[in-house]
């Protein structure tokens, strides 16, 4: 415990944690729009396409300078998005092919540039490799201001265009009909994805960036139905994954930050998919179970009601075997017990037979009639 | 002579690239047409996980077990993504983007934990080491052949046989899955067969070009070919051709500039694509721009002949049927008016008589076609 407190009080670790949480939050916030607009894989293409820009920024600045590296990444990312749009609009190639082309060719060029840097043998070429997988430990205190500035700009942008982004994300056709500049807004949203990538590169690297964009948003989507809630929850999950990943990789030697962050985020997604209230897989299974029980209960009640009507005896006692014949399967003891405990049926003996019999109570008749949708007839005539 | 061939380092490097390129292009053509290009992205990333798990379990970094492991991982990626999407909690694109980074991240972590005793390291996973393929050889029929060449050769044969034997079925399932299913051709099985072979090819190509550059070989040459032809067989042949050309030119450029060989080969596929995107005869951007220009000119020609026809033999003719009127009355810019007149002249629609623009018989016919009547 003291070890952790020691660790947290260290200046470097604080910087890394704040930086990682900041990066995760920005990516999570902007990723929410990408996921809603089904542009998840665009994020993958753009993040791979950022590699040549990172290398160019490095070559031009002559070292690992955050500003020029980010500008480079943003430049090639935006170029990739443009080319992508050109291919989709002006040729018959499908979106997935365009994504694959942009992703792989830009990355290949990036690899070539990477070897150029390595042969030049600059002192910082090792630092460049960390852009492939991210290294939160390389975040400097001065970097925090850059990241904070970009984060603030992104938040202001989202707040300023909240209504427009919401409309474009959910109903493009309506937005266009209302006269909103849809193409321009889509371009701004794409630019924001590129921005999220540029920011996230430090933390998870180009290869895994897509997960930092998608996972928080996909998890957040399970917990809330409102866009505002989703953006906030997504940012929070992104921040938690970023900080958690930075902490783990800072305490374990030789572990790159990116993969750890991604695994934490994926873990949050899996938990969310399972337990998110109302939507999660466990809730779905429980709802199915409840529906099944309701139908099973209803069939037992309807059968008892049928026997009662057939014999013109509201309190007609039916034996379990009779129910089995009518239902096609033996009614589960649990179903009978639950119906009895709810006061819908009553266990009675029917001498001279010795097996338990069941009859509908008054409440049971009412329930059965409600279920069948027919008026209650000939109730308790005897 | 054969021994000398397999001992030539440059030849072996280029051969490895060419074998990768051909195998990838054969499958890539169908993946592109079926809209599954991004599944390749997912598969080639998550295979890293399969490779490291098989290595941890068996100690093999190549060979049949690895191929099997890769095939399982690749199919697992696709199945997991499809299951996730089917739960309707996330969309398909997000499902793909959730599954493969998770597997890839797990793979990278397993590598870094065991880094001290593996020759697998993160760089080679991503980039491959095509420059060193000749180091690791195996004796085949008494000749030392690089392992990568032998493996890729075998994979190429398998892919080639698959495509040639199932050509008709692949074509049908790709262009009309519904009809293929109705005729009993099991398009679903073919879908997974293609993805399994993609995984196998990816693992074989892994040592040479790495996980991500492989995507370039699968996607880009077939996409380039697709811009040039509408015939499937020609598309496959062209894709193979582009792959081979990219490998050879990429190798020499990489030597020349002293950069990554695999990266340069993959970059060259991008160069072919850019050229095709710009200059493809029918679909290229230049051809599109020229066509748009011709269409615009011809439209202006129609407006021009209609204008001349309206004022022909009227008192206003002297004023209207002139180049100046086009600028002042139709509000065309002077270059636009000149271009339209030149074009109409070239097409023998009009002629210049006494300083006025007059319709030629072809021009009159054109006007009548526009107004839909014949003033005989």
Q: Would you tell me which CATH topology of the largest domain in chain A applies?
A: ABC transporter involved in vitamin B12 uptake, BtuC
**CATH architecture designation of the largest domain in chain B:** Orthogonal Bundle
CATH H level, superfamily name of the largest domain in chain B: ABC transporter involved in vitamin B12 uptake, BtuC
Strand content of chain A: under 5%
Give the biggest sheet of chain A.
3 strands, antiparallel
The most extensive contact between chains is:
A-B, 62 and 60 residues
Through-space gap between termini of chain A: 76 Å
Order of helices and strands of chain A: HHHHHHHHHHHHHEHHEEH
Keywords for this structure?
heterodimer; A: 382 residues; mainly alpha; ABC transporter involved in vitamin B12 uptake, BtuC; Arc Repressor Mutant, subunit A; 2 domains; 3-stranded antiparallel beta sheet; 3% strand; B: 376 residues; two-stranded antiparallel sheet; two-stranded antiparallel ribbon; 17 helices; 76% helix; 4% strand; elongated
What can you see in these coordinates?
The complex is a heterodimer of chains A (382) and B (376). Chain A has helices spanning 2-9, 11-36, 40-61, 66-90, 95-120, 125-133, 141-160, 162-170, 172-177, 182-223, 227-251, 257-275, 281-310, 320-327, 333-341, 362-372, and strands at 318-319, 345-348, 357-360. By secondary structure, chain A is mainly α. Chain A folds into 2 domains: 14-256, ABC transporter involved in vitamin B12 uptake, BtuC, CATH 1.10.3470; 283-372, Orthogonal Bundle (Arc Repressor Mutant, subunit A). In chain A, strand 2 (345-348) and strand 3 (357-360) form a beta hairpin. The radius of gyration of chain A is 31 Å and the shape is elongated. The termini of chain A are far apart. Helix content of chain B is 76%, strand content 4%. Chain B has 2 domains: 1-280, Orthogonal Bundle (ABC transporter involved in vitamin B12 uptake, BtuC); 286-373, Winged helix-like DNA-binding domain superfamily/Winged helix DNA-binding domain (Arc Repressor Mutant, subunit A), CATH 1.10.10. In chain B, a hairpin with a 2-residue loop joins strand 3 and strand 4. With 376 residues, chain B is mainly alpha-helical. The longest helix of chain B is centred in the middle third of the chain and has 42 residues, at 187-228. In chain B, the strands form 2 sheets. Chain B has a two-stranded antiparallel ribbon with strand order 1-2. A two-stranded antiparallel ribbon of chain B has the order 3-4. In chain B, helix 11 (232-257) packs across helix 12 (261-279). The chains are: A mainly alpha (382), B mainly alpha (376). The interface between A and B is large, with 62 and 60 residues. Chain B: The chain crosses the membrane at residues 12-32, 39-58, 64-85, 94-113, 133-166, 173-194, 200-220, 232-254, 266-287. Chain B: This is Zinc ABC transporter, permease protein. Chain B: It is a multi-pass membrane protein. Chain B: It is found in: Cell membrane. Chain B: It comes from Yoonia vestfoldensis SKA53.
């Amino acid at each position: 415990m003291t070890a952790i407190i020691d660790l947290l009080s260290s200046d470097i670790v604080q910087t890394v944690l704040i930086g990682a949480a900041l990066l995760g939050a920005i990516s999570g916030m902007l990723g929410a729009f990408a996921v809603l607009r089904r542009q998840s894989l665009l994020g993958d293409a753009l993040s791979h396409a950022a590699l040549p820009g990172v290398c160019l920024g490095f070559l031009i600045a002559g070292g690992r300078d955050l500003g020029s590296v980010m500008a480079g990444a943003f430049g090639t990312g935006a170029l990739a998005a443009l080319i992508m749009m050109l291919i989709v609009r002006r040729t018959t190639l499908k979106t997935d092919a365009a994504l694959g082309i942009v992703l792989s060719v830009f990355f290949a060029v990036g690899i070539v540039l990477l070897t150029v840097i390595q042969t030049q043998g600059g002192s910082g070429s090792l630092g460049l490799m960390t852009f492939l997988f991210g290294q939160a430990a390389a975040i400097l205190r001065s970097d925090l201001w850059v990241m904070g500035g970009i984060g603030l700009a992104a938040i202001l942008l989202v707040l300023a265009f909240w209504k427009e982004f919401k409309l474009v994300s959910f109903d493009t056709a309506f937005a266009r009909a209302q006269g909103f500049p849809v193409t321009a807004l889509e371009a701004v949203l794409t630019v924001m994805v590129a921005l999220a990538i540029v920011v996230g590169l430090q933390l998870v690297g180009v290869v895994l960036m897509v997960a930092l964009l998608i996972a928080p948003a996909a998890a957040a989507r399970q917990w809330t139905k409102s866009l505002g809630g989703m953006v906030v929850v997504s940012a929070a999950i992104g921040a938690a994954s970023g900080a958690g990943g930075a902490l783990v990789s800072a305490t374990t030697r030789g572990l790159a930050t990116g993969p750890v962050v991604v695994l934490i985020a994926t873990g949050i997604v899996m938990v969310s998919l399972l337990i998110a209230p109302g939507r999660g897989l466990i809730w779905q299974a429980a709802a199915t179970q409840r529906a099944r029980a309701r139908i099973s209960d209803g069939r037992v009640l309807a059968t008892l009601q049928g026997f009662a009507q057939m014999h013109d005896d509201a309190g007609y006692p039916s034996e379990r075997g009779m129910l089995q014949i009518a239902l096609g399967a033996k009614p589960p003891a649990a179903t009978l017990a639950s119906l009895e405990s709810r006061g819908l049926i009553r266990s009675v003996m029917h001498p001279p037979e010795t097996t338990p019999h069941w009859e509908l109570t008054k409440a049971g008749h009412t329930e059965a009639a409600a279920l069948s949708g027919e008026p209650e007839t000939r109730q308790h005539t005897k | 002579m054969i021994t000398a061939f397999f001992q030539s380092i440059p030849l072996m490097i280029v051969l490895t690239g060419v074998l990768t390129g051909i195998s990838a292009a054969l499958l890539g053509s169908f993946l592109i047409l079926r809209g599954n290009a991004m599944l390749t992205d997912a598969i080639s990333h998550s295979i890293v996980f399969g490779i490291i798990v098989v290595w941890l379990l068996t100690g093999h970094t190549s060979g049949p077990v690895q191929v099997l492991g890769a095939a399982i991982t690749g199919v697992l990626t696709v199945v997991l993504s499809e299951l996730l999407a089917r739960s309707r909690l996330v969309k398909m694109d997000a499902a793909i983007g959730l599954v493969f980074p998770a597997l890839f991240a797990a793979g990278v972590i397993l590598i870094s934990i065991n880094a001290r005793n593996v020759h697998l390291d993160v760089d080679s996973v991503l980039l491959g080491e095509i420059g060193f393929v000749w180091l690791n050889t195996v004796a085949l029929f008494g000749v030392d052949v690089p392992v990568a060449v032998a493996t890729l050769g075998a994979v190429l044969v398998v892919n080639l046989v698959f495509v040639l034997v199932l050509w008709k079925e692949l074509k049908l399932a790709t262009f009309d899955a519904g009809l293929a299913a109705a005729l009993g051709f099991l398009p679903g099985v073919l879908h997974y067969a293609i993805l399994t072979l993609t995984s196998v090819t990816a693992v074989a190509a892994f040592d040479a070009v790495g996980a991500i550059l492989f995507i370039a070989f699968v996607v880009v040459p077939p996409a380039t070919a697709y811009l040039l032809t509408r015939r499937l067989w020609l598309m496959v042949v062209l894709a193979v051709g582009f792959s081979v050309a990219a490998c050879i030119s990429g190798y020499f450029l990489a030597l020349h500039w002293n950069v990554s060989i695999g990266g340069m080969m993959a970059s060259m596929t991008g160069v072919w694509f850019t050229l095709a995107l710009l200059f493809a005869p029918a679909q290229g951007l230049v051809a599109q721009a020229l066509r748009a220009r011709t269409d615009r000119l011809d439209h202006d020609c129609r407006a021009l002949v209609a204008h001349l026809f309206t004022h022909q033999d009227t008192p206003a003719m002297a004023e209207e049927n002139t180049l100046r009127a086009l600028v002042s009355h139709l509000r065309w810019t002077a270059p636009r008016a000149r271009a339209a007149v030149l074009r109409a002249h070239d097409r023998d629609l009009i002629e210049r008589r006494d300083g006025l623009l007059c319709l030629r018989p072809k021009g009159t016919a054109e006007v009548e076609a526009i107004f839909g009547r014949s003033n005989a």
